[in-house]
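Interim report, section 4.2 (structural modelling).
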Amino acid sequence: MRRPQRSPTILLCGLLGCAGGAGDSPSELRVRTDEPAAAPSDLQWKRYAAFESDLARALALPREELCRELGSEPCIRKVHLVPLGGNEPLFTGMYEPSAEPLATTPTVVDRVVLTACSNRVARDRAVGADALVFAAFPLDGAAPRPDDASARALVAALFRRLLARDPTDSELEVIAALAADRDGQPVSAAEFAKLACFAIGTSAEFLFF
Amino acid sequence: MTRSFSVGRRELLKLGLAAGALGLVPRESGAQTAWSAPDARARKLLFVVCAHGGASIVDSFLPLLDHEAGSAAATLNCFPERLIAQPPGSAFRCVTLLDSYQAYPRPSYPIARFVAQHGRDLVVVGHDVGSVNHLVGQARALNGAGTDRGRTIMESAALRHGAGLPLPNCNMAIDGYVQHGTDASVPVAARHEIVMTPLLFGAGTHGFHAVPEAPSAAGIARARRAREQVDRDSAFRQAFSRDGRLNAYLRARQEVPSRLEAAQLVDKLLLVDPQRVDRRYGLARDPLALTVRAQLPHIDSDRIQAQIGLAFLLAHHGASNALTLGFGTEPAVRPSGAIVGVPLGFDFAHSLHRVSQALMWSRTLEVVDLLIALLKSHDYLGDPALGRMWDRSLVYIATEFGRDKARPGGAESWGSGHDLNNGSVLISPLLKGNAVYGGVSPRTGQTYGFDPQTGRPDPNRKMSERDVYGIIAHALDIALPSGLRYPGVVRAV
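Predicted structure of the assembly:
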């Protein structure tokens, strides 16, 4: 919405009273006052400890084997503790966690979940028929077709593990479609497993409760 | 404190331009200042170094000499002349190395060295503060006692110069220095990103680079699109469609990762020893990161050096323009076992005032010197046409309050409490440097202020955190609601 140029006096009042901007370009930093008031909600941000616990349980991995950054430091409890909603009071003097997710939180969530999913895929691939999580089809070779029962079985299993519910038909279709690339060619079974796990594990429903 | 600034027609016009900068004037207007996509040439860089615990200005750059204090010398925090140095041509007299540091190692970096190297850009401002509470004082040191709608100076700098940068505002400090400002209208993008592990922070800027056996980038993109679709259509999303936190997160998820990943920051920002990283992670050894490691010899064991390295790289690569660094409450321990600094930082003055202040000022200025050296030796964004990073930088040594000016009669070692009277140190070519703005009273040891228009000292004037904030804002071309300007301190552009 365009606003007429105002006199300096009114602009001074505007500076003191409010700020706003026309347009909503994602690349611009704007002082936002045009958002509707949020309805009261009990929705909570799943912070690092619960996030770690749920992810470990879902992927049947020990917590310490979910993710280590560059193979060294724990991702959740140390390297990415703050964007995952934690705080460290002793050495960094951060007595309280951030009230809200940080700018890097989505990226860090992607990274940690992807690493954890990859670790689980590697474990299941190593044990073949005794796979714990990704047991719907062999992880060597090509992924099944998206409309194949085994592909859908994997998606359903991941929904149950990560979101504690069955997927809807449309969710099945959307996630199972990851078994093929954009040209319709099958990706590797391992890649499909990782992508499906990643897509569901980084969803808003897994991160908020 | 008295202040008699007038906001005349010229100031109102400047406010109008600033209002345009804030988007109150349509982009098509000829009178506006374009800020929504600031030109890199005009961008300013702010580095805030948080001197935790109360860094006393009269124990560093504004010492009182005993002969100046006269009969009060025995009960005031003052120094014999032999402990004071004033480099040639410098406006600053400063405390030299002490005769004794008791159980602590003698520091290797005298304040006078800092003055000799950076005095031309050095500014000391005498002022009072509003609180002797650590957390409150720390917040006020950053938000200018609320002078700019409760925004921290870093948030204001990010809003003014950081649009379009992946992470305009990053904070590595502790305690109250790591708190956001209180202006709810500041967008998430301008609020600071808290950094706890500087050496590995770069890893968190990409969702899948350096993740072993990660799927292809095309596959990740497809998975993210699938996730967006699931999140958009799910019953969960429908139930919480008006949840502000969820909406903010989903918006950030759409905007920030792509910006971060496009900047390819992982290799550029990672400061871990490359010898210790397995090649299977596919990390490229960034030459500048290696150079930074070489110039910060204790980067692996000294958290503040790691912070300096990351702050420099974030600014250099155009990822951030407002960086906050801060000492922890523990001293650093070198590989040799030598202890650098004291426990509790400057606040150890409660037990050992003079020694702890001397040690911490030495440590603080040594690390600031390392930072400035990096800024002076590299072009902004690696582009010679943009000039050295230092040309557009301002370093603010923030601290929450001063220390008691009194000392037990004739004592050489004593403990001090928090004090509302102090001063601040700013270093920048954007300022009229080599100057003390204000002074110190020989009768009381208290600092006093100056005329913001002329810069001349005024023993009857008390400045505050608002003035420090205002000076920084003026230097960084940030318009304040109050319209306050400091032409006596800030160089005209």
